[in-house]
Fold:
Amino acid sequence: MRDRFWEHFALDQLEQDEWEALCDGCGRCCLVKLEDEDTGELHFTDVVCRYLDTQTCRCTSYATRLKVVPDCLQVSVDIAQRYDWLPASCAYRRLARGEQLPTWHPLLTGTRTSVVDAGISVRGKVISEALVPEDLLEERIVQWVR
Structure:
């Protein structure tokens, strides 16, 4: 991996390991989101994909996630630039919009726990969708800070 690659290369010029390293491991992209049919507004819940390990905030089916979860999207440069369902703290979204990495990002701190220490991670704040009936999802809508 190239040193401070995110400062020297556009997202579409990154090597695969660099692209993956941008993920801070917060788990927020794995939150179940509900769309208001009338307004198109997205509402975030405190429910996560059944494949997200709620302690490590890592996907337990990462290699096959696009097959086992039909709604799962591969984050791309286009998605990072255009869609607001990625959290404002997301490195992909921030870099795609010309912003810097947040000071707590693991690439800057050198530790994976900095995202937890900063209060950005969903660790300890969510429940797996496997434990929540679909008809109760609306009751799980929350406002995520930051």
